[in-house]
Specification:
The protein is an alpha/beta fold. Helices cover 45% and strands 17% of the residues. It contains 30 helices and 29 strands. InterPro entries: P-loop_NTPase. This is Type I restriction enzyme R protein N terminus (HSDR_N).
Length: 788
Amino acid sequence: MKVTKATKGETEAQLEARARAALLKALPWLDGKEIKQQVSFTIRFGHAVIHVDGKEREHVTGRADILVTVDGVPTLVLELKRPELGINDDDVEQGLSYARILHPGPPLVLATDGTASRLVETHTGMDWRPASQDEVALKALLDNVALVATDDIKRATSRLLGPDPKVWIEAVRTVSASFVDERTGDWTTPELPFVDGFVLPRKAVADAVEALKSGKRLVFVEGDPISGKSSALRALAGHLNTGDDFAMLTLDADSGIDLFGTLSDILSSQISWPITPHEARDWVQLLSRTGGPPLVVAVDDFDGARGSFRQDLEALTSPLFGERIRVVLALDTGAAHRLLTSGNGRSPSALKRRAPERFALTPLDDDEFATACDHLKEHGISIMAGGERSREYRLPWVMRTMASLVLADRPLEPEKVKILPPIPTIELLGHSERRYRDASGPMTNYREVAETLVEDLTSDDLTEELRLLSLDTYVVRKSALRERLSDADIRELVDAGLLHEGRSEGGEALLYPKLQDLLAMHLAHVFARRIVEDGDLAKVADDLAGLASSVPLGPVIAAYSIFVATRSHGTLDYNLIEALRAREPRREALSPGRTVVGRTPDGHEFEMTGLPNGRMELRMGDLIHTVDGEDLNSLVDIDPWMILSYLAMWRMAADSEDGDRSARLDGVLMLQIGSFPGPLIKPGNLSDMVETHSLPGGVEALHYKGIFEPITYAMLLFFSREPEHAATFAAAALERESLPLMLRIDAALTQLADFSGDASETAAELRREVVRPAVKALLKRGGEANAG
């Protein structure tokens, strides 16, 4: 189709000047280039010749058709309308009809009235939106057009993507970077999963890297929705996309995802050339059998449902594709189970036969926690000694939320370090109240989610799988939530990212709250209402203890509910405190037939089963021992005192009969609970693995330096806030002649003495002059009693 230039008159020159002004306004980066505009031109279509007179059409329709060349190359068809007429789809279609039959074909159409404008790709009819509209992007577009002019689409695609991997590697790495950028905030944006500059170290990620390097084509990274699966993919991309060995493409498995359609969109947008999903599949198939770095397709949060996406995954990992394609799936355990079983739920699926490598994201282990603490220090945050044995800190969301607590209202100062307490405290939930005070939209339905969770935990038909799952994360059954929220409300929460969908291994639909601190806060308010409205405080105490034993931060939530009830009601019935105080922890051997599992300090798993006559069977690997139950008894009914331990961190006064409010309830609790002879640590906590010393009088004292128990941290807070009352409290403690109490006071004062300020000086003096001598005297007295 030959293009010829027509003669221009004065009016045509004016039109061309207006066209140039509109063109440079829409594409200012063309300024300085050799730009020519043809207001009148002819095109050859088959055996026919079409003459286009832009000046004439502008007079009749208010729209001029102008062909623009840049540096001698036909670049765009300009549909220039009279000022203030606006533009519409018809204007774009008119320009496309000319651009598509010109040869050589201009790759762009610009429709503008001098104010509004729209820039469209000729080949696709879609708006042209490269990463940046500049000369580089235009050159890439023009190069692709020139390629197609001398070759067919198949060969063009092959030449663009095949021999030189730099093109597609850059494309997929850019998409993975966008995946991270869109989800990155700071410590105070809990709705976003990533914190800028902070990546939790996970062994599962290192294991996945090694599996991919060894040639494994299918890798699962498994965990619950709040275990950090997205963060694991972020870290994995950081490993794979910084070298020359791999290129990783990270995708979200939202509903209806079309893998090859997504790939075609990515390649089209990133390399300025449109290819169809079928062509994308052909390219991947070709890529999988040629040399160069493997492409790793990483998919986040796939639910394992059967459909086109699952079929694409089965194809990618089959012999139809070569070994240069690897797949990583981040998914919950229930989804993994569905992927590995066929439709009947019994026989292995096609993916199961591919023998995927599976790596679990469990709470942080010791090495991961230590590295995370090192990373926190780079952000000016440190955790007080003893925090390394807090199970709650091993949950990534708790660590992040506690960090946001100290940073939200008190920004970091140069050369200063923020110290986190050794255990999460009820201030975490107070911080959540302030953070979500003005929450609106679907977030307000978290109250119903919390109420459903409470009902689930007390339900007789809740499976053991879900009860165990609830110990490390909040989860509700979808069927139960439907009793309180409509399907539309639930879908709104899911679409907003506030609930994650999952399934149990048994196939039951589950929902995981994304904002776990918000859910914990609502749990506290649910129980606060019970405290105020339920007249049976003994039953309320039982319910609080049940909550404390069943969910993450359970004792913290229960204690905060008492605080909220007191705040809202103005006072608190002391009978509730008495009901909790009366349930002192005790040691018991396992009842016959009951089995518990655990882990030794060196990481070996064990299993204990109760036998008749007070004996127990201990299994470690292939070894089986029978021991006396008294030698391996366990602490039971600890939760009521754990709740009171957290409550003791607040200054509380108790009314006496004469109306005197000077009696300090927090002091009473610290004296009573602090006298318990064994470690007061929530069962199942990693702190169970700290070593203890067996001391006279049946006392089990914690060995490591640091604070592990909430009651000891309550003492530290008391001494730091009220150093003027420290000596009075110590005197009251001395009167009890309790070695466990004095050891806890010693631990609190030792930690406080390491800080700076008047309270630290008072703590050091009190420890040196009063507490240490008392500990030595009590130890000596106990030793003499044993000798006698």
